[in-house]
Design a protein that fits this description.
The protein is α+β, with helices and mostly antiparallel strands and 69 residues long. The chain has a single domain, classed as N-terminal domain of TfIIb (Single Sheet). It contains two helices and five strands; from the N terminus they run H-E-E-E-E-E-H. Strands 1, 2, 3, 4 and 5 form a five-stranded antiparallel beta sheet that branches. Strand 1 and strand 2 form a beta hairpin. The protein is globular, with a radius of gyration of 11 Å.
Length: 69
């Protein structure tokens, strides 16, 4: 589990925006870049080549139901 202090200082390496932590999926979401970064052995893997694209449903959920215009 990642500490709240660590999550607060991390930023997306693609867009520079904030990351949203999901401990159940062991991922950090970047809504700005539309990707999810894995967390392995409590270490965030913030490499663009390791990120997976998020689908529209995930993005809409994280945006509070709002679609990108």
């Amino acid at each position: 589990m990642l500490s709240p202090q660590l999550i607060e200082i991390l930023a997306c390496p693609i867009c520079g925006g904030p990351l949203i932590y999901d401990p159940d999926k062991a991922e950090l979401f970047s809504v700005g870049a539309g990707v999810a970064f894995p967390i392995r052995d409590d270490i965030p893997i913030l490499l663009e080549e390791e990120a997976r694209p998020m689908d529209e449903a995930e993005l809409a959920r994280l945006r509070g139901g709002r679609k990108r215009s």
